[in-house]
Design goal:
This protein is an all-alpha fold. The protein has 11 helices and no strands.
Length: 223
């Protein structure tokens, strides 16, 4: 029973936060919509901020719950790893999900970060970003400059996020073709993969000089 109440509060709060932002939603409204006493938030979450943190955490889990865990063997080529990474990311950010609020809340947190963003980055973003950096290292000469790795990684991530952040613009701009474009995850995966691979290979051939004292993000680096 307690878990049902806690879960109901989380679901209602997450939806309201996604629709109107953290500041625009009151604890009183959350409790009214959830059909619980206003003291329930203090009992289960201590305060509104903790409730929001838990809603963001739940949203991140729900956005990735159906995605396969990325695992590779030493024999897998970096091309295969990169394509799988891109496909996973597109599936998590582009596809329509029910309920829709988890993806909306995560995108809101990315665009207008709150204190919850540090935890979200530490638990969900950082592990994937480090995995992408490791994939990119396999394409480049030994000890590539950290800035080269970061630019490549953010270029790939940015291409994937564009189709989420500009979803409504694509629909207005292209009409039905925009919706068809967004629904074709395999087509988007192939395009971003081929486009990115060509750029990576071009940069790998240029062999940029590593700056003295240059350090790349390490797994133990502070979030």
């Amino acid at each position: 029973m307690n878990n049902d109440i806690r879960g109901r509060i989380l679901q209602v709060a997450g939806q309201l936060f996604a629709e109107r932002s953290y500041r625009s939603v009151s604890v009183r409204e959350i409790c009214r919509r959830a059909g619980v006493n206003i003291s329930a938030v203090n009992y289960y979450f201590r305060d509104k901020e903790t409730l929001y943190l838990e809603a963001v955490r739940l949203a991140a889990r729900q956005c990735t719950r159906d995605l396969p865990i990325l695992t590779w063997s030493e024999a897998d080529p970096p091309e295969s790893k990169l394509r799988q990474f891109i496909q996973n990311m597109l599936r998590s950010v582009v596809r329509e999900q029910e309920p829709a609020w988890p993806a909306q809340l995560i995108m809101s947190e990315v665009v207008r970060p709150t204190r919850a963003c540090r935890r979200f980055v530490r638990e969900f973003v950082r592990p994937n970003f480090l995995a992408l950096l490791n994939i990119l290292r396999e394409f480049l000469p030994e000890h590539p400059p950290s800035q080269t790795l970061y630019r490549l990684a953010f270029s790939i991530v940015g291409q994937c996020l564009y189709y989420r952040l500009c979803r409504s613009v694509l629909s207005l701009l292209l009409g039905r073709q925009g919706n068809e474009l967004l629904e074709d995850i395999e087509g988007l995966t192939d395009h971003i993969f081929r486009f990115s691979l060509a750029g990576i290979r071009a940069i790998a051939k240029s062999r940029p000089r590593r700056d003295v004292g240059d350090k790349c993000l390490a797994p133990e680096a502070r979030a």
